[in-house]
């Protein structure tokens, strides 16, 4: 059974704010509040997968300390644009 879009968005928003480190809570809450509604199903799949990654890795990717895996690079760049850390 497919998850209804509204339920999926609520779940992803909750996962965005219940992270392991406060910095990622703040980053992903801001991103999810400004972009999730506009993402298509495939983009939501990538975001959902990103949320399963380790917070320390995510923080390094978003802060530009390390390159993200190819499958997350466009999403990480979009997150960086939203939070204002793009180079």
UniProtKB/TrEMBL annotation:
InterPro entries: SDH, SDH_sf. Transmembrane segments: none annotated. PANTHER family: PROTEIN EMI5 HOMOLOG, MITOCHONDRIAL (PTHR12469), SUCCINATE DEHYDROGENASE ASSEMBLY FACTOR 2, MITOCHONDRIAL (PTHR12469:SF2). It comes from Lutimaribacter saemankumensis. Coiled coil: none annotated. One of its GO terms (biological process) is tricarboxylic acid cycle. Gene3D superfamilies: Flavinator of succinate dehydrogenase (1.10.150.250). Pfam families: Sdh5. The keyword Disulfide bond does not apply. This is FAD assembly factor SdhE. Belongs to the SdhE FAD assembly factor family. It comes from the Bacteria.
């Amino acid at each position: 059974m497919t998850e209804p879009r509204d339920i999926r968005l609520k779940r992803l928003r909750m996962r965005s704010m219940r992270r392991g480190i406060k910095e990622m809570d703040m980053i992903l809450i801001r991103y999810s509040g400004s972009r999730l509604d506009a993402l298509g199903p495939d983009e939501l799949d990538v975001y959902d997968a990103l949320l399963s990654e380790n917070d320390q890795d995510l923080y390094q990717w978003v802060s530009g300390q390390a390159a993200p895996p190819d499958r997350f690079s466009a999403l990480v760049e979009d997150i960086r644009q939203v939070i204002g850390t793009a180079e």
